[in-house]
Amino acid sequence: MRPTAARLLNILVPVKRRVRLTIDYAVKIRVNPDQKGVDLNVKHSMNPFDEIAVEEAVRLREKLKDEVKSIKVVTIGPAKAAETLRTGLAMGADSAIHVETPESSPPPEPLGVAKALRALIERQKDGVDLVILGKQAIDDDAGQTGQMLAGLLDWPQATFASKLVVDPTKKEANITQEIDGGLQEVKCKLPLIVTTDLRLNEPRYASLPNIMKAKKKPIEKLSPSDLGIDLTPRLETIKITEPPKRQGGGKVESVDELIAKLKEAGVVGR
After folding, report:
1. Where would one find the signal peptide in this protein (predicted)?
2. What is the mean pLDDT of the chain?
3. Which terminus of the chain faces fewer neighbouring Cβ atoms within 10 Å, N or C?
4. Which ranges of 93-207 does DSSP label H, i.e. alpha helix?
């Protein structure tokens, strides 16, 4: 029997190509000449934690089948960020939203992103039951957007999820969270914000047929003004420098020589 409309889940997955652009993890990061940021003329890819979020949404559909009505991915960034949305669509999302910003505009901060997501959620005709996003981005490591979004919407949140079980009938979810002392399990009512940890799943590679199908899936384009928000950063970057280069090590013949070298370097007291 097909579930009633009231039980169908609409899932939103924010994905990031940029807040200073998520540079591919295999690329060496270099500071740009004006020392205001990093060199962006390199390969970019979807933030790894957001890949996990997309994968989890697709796995929920595979498990719950007809109880998931839609999976929608959203990103904020310049025209090139559409490539990241196509990746999410190829992984299994149904449609996408691109909040397009000028190429030269400064990257939005977590609060600005959270406000944009709140505005997007509030304009969805069918509503949003579950937002799954990465716990952090690997460029700025801020780890703030999910928590800020939950606060703005006054929704429950479950961060650092390593397991997610959703019951559409009861409109609730059980989440296993990774904490300093190990694991803890929490139960939350939908609608809900979930941020993903590494051990939640291993994202799939998009197949060639799905990559081709993704080209035909709809991407809705909006601007920040369409959402009634201002993405102008509240913080100013004064200067960015590379860390000092590590000095080469040396060999010693005995413990006494090692201690003498450490004292000479001022690492241990004399």
Report:
1. none
2. 86
3. N
4. 110-122, 145-153
